[in-house]
Design the sequence.
């Protein structure tokens, strides 16, 4: 499996903001139009920023009317590649991994869990939401037998994270959502996003006593 | 309860980077010294950026030697207020909330869970890790009876999030870690951090096909 990658002129911050625009748009009526100024009020990002971010990808607005909410929503979905279903696997099915499987608000229809892996003897062979939990050792074979795995979600303990990441990359994984509180050592053709809950608590702990 | 807040000249990005410096430092020997150049190599942030971030808070380096890892670590902990234990409550004890209670990697010794709340009749009165699950309706009374609640972690479904947030703020909560995929409407004296798992998956989905 070799996903073709183009070097992007787009900064990660642009993509992060696109996901936030989407989150605001989804609560609005698709029939309506919205101006960048109205989007500024809703999202907190400036109208100039919003127009600039969107201009990287095309001309989505209509002069004098603004953006069709339906069109803008659909276009951002296409940019992010979530207008279609993407295949994900979850490695580590302790409670956090279980939460991701069972709480559909986190994956929605854009992401389809096609594999769950753990190393606990008592869990392997059991099922969550109809998906059988497999041994982590099976990952390489699983990859050979599947068409496409888009994202691996890593919810294993910190001490196991690097070893499993190396195994995932060898097996062909190209992108990883990492919940382990560790900086993974990975080649730069692999996409990684870290979600560090402990770091977020630390940030919030600072801000509870300091105003922005 | 009225936490005194000073308007901070510090940008949220500075605080976010501090948590990342900490994450790198914790794997190094506290006896050693480290230069900002070495920190650049480890963290990916420039030495200039690192020096500037730290200079907001004091003079932590020693000329010609760099930073004492132990001192720098302890100082960043103090800046973030995590050298001491902070009290948190969790609202919504479906699987994600349960994961936060049971997987100590997410809270460590800096954060102590003193209350768990849910609205499910079958859960109220039961215990997780020795902590009794209480009815969400009890939150206002719980606040009156406790010295200090630093952070409320919200892991309720999207549709319930705003209503519970309003209740939390009325009860006296000053900072919220929100996992519900919704933009909470909150007064600007309340600190909020959102962790949007679905948005992170969307970002990663973009980057799996585009190189940074």
Sequence:
């Amino acid at each position: 499996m070799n996903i073709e990658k183009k070097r992007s002129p787009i900064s990660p911050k642009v993509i992060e903001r696109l996901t936030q625009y989407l989150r605001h748009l989804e609560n609005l009526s698709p029939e309506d139009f919205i101006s960048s100024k109205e989007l500024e009020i809703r999202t907190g990002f400036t109208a100039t920023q919003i127009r600039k971010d969107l201009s990287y990808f095309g001309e989505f607005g209509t002069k004098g009317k603004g953006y069709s909410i339906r069109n803008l929503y659909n276009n951002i979905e296409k940019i992010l590649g979530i207008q279609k279903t993407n295949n994900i696997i979850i490695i580590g099915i302790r409670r956090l991994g279980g939460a991701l499987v069972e709480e559909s608000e986190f994956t929605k229809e854009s992401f389809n869990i096609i594999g769950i892996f753990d190393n606990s003897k008592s869990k392997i062979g059991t099922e969550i939401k109809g998906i059988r939990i497999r041994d982590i050792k099976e990952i390489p074979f699983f990859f050979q037998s599947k068409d496409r795995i888009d994202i691996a979600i890593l919810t294993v303990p910190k001490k196991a994270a690097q070893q499993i990441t190396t195994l995932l990359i060898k097996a062909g994984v190209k992108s990883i959502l990492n919940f382990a509180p560790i900086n993974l050592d990975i080649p730069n053709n692999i996409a990684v996003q870290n979600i560090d809950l402990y770091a977020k608590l630390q940030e919030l702990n600072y801000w509870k006593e300091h105003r922005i």
User: Anything to note?
Assistant: The CA atoms of residues 120 and 166 of chain A lie 19 Å apart. The domain at 12-80 of chain A is CATH 1.10.10.10 (Arc Repressor Mutant, subunit A). The helical segments of chain A are 12-25, 36-43, 47-55, 69-80, 95-102, 139-145, 158-171, 197-207. The mean pLDDT of chain A is 89.
